[in-house]
Amino acid sequence: MLEIDAITLHYGAAQALKGVSCAAVEGQVTTVLGRNGVGKSSLLRAVVGRHPISGGAIRWQGRDISRLSPPDRAAAGIAYVPQGREIFPLLTVRENLETGYALLPRGQRMIPDEVFTLFPVLKDMLNRRGGDLSGGQQQQLAIGRAMVMRPRLLVLDEPTEGIQPSIIKDIGRAIGWLRDQGGLAILLVEQYFDFARDLADTFYVMDRGEVVQSGSGSEMTGAQGDALRRRIAV
């Protein structure tokens, strides 16, 4: 569904991505691994249109979206859960979720039941301000907000960052459930190796703005997994 073809990306004179190619497929979780500062978040910003690419192409369902604005990419079915969550702290949980309505036809403007099935704490806190939630609850809210959009591609940037272990498990179960429903491709950037390994159908490893290794999720176990863990921990 998503094809990233030899893209480059610059911040001024600094080159963050150097000919990166990868893909994300419907019904699968594709994980991008690597140390801090290797270009993982820049890759996601390129996918969702937050930063223009300098070269190459991004294709979504066969259509070149390289020059589309972020709202147009969202309208095409791409939902983004950014690093740091970026919820609206002064809006209630309900209002935060309802911001996902922006691109939906009027008849679809409702919060899907599965948001509260996966994250029941959100239902209990609908009238609480987003800024009053814990970090883990805010992460659940950010994912729930993306689900309200009924996406075809869900892009997640380090959803476990700064989250307590019990909520990490809840988020992992939610991502696995969404993958298993079909009709959705998931692109996940993650540094927590065990979390990524348990979810990945396909993985890519980045270093210095390039993809240096890729494979199937089964290669993230055993001796191969141990070697991969050491590589991204250096």
Structure description:
The protein is an alpha/beta fold. The protein has a single domain, classed as Rossmann fold (3-Layer(aba) Sandwich). 35% of the residues lie in helices and 26% in strands. Strands 6-7-8-3-9-10 form a six-stranded mixed β-sheet, sandwiched between helices. A four-stranded antiparallel β-sheet has the order 2-1-4-5, with helices on one face. A hairpin with a 2-residue loop joins strand 9 and strand 10 (210-216). The longest helix is centred in the last third of the chain and has 16 residues, at 165-180. The two termini are 32 Å apart. The relative contact order is 0.20. The mean pLDDT is 95.
Considering the chains and any ligands shown, give keywords for the structure:
234 residues; four-stranded antiparallel β-sheet; Rossmann fold; 35% helix
Give the helices and strands, then pairings.
Blueprint: E1 2-11, E2 14-24, E3 29-33, H1 40-48, E4 55-60, E5 63-64, H2 70-75, E6 78-81, H3 93-98, H4 113-118, H5 120-124, H6 135-148, E7 153-157, H7 165-180, E8 185-189, H8 193-199, E9 202-207, E10 210-216, H9 222-233
Parallel strand pairs: 3-8, 3-9, 6-7, 7-8
Antiparallel strand pairs: 1-2, 1-4, 4-5, 9-10
- In total, the number of domains comes to 1
SSE run: EEEHEEHEHHHHEHEHEEH
Largest sheet: 6 strands, mixed
Q: Superfamily at the CATH H level? A: P-loop containing nucleotide triphosphate hydrolases
Query: How many E-type strands?
Result: 10
Please compute the radius of gyration using only Cα atoms: 17 Å
Uncertain segments: none
* First-last Cα distance: 32 Å
The class by helix and strand makeup works out as alpha/beta
The level-1 CATH class: Alpha Beta
Helicity, in percent?
25-40%
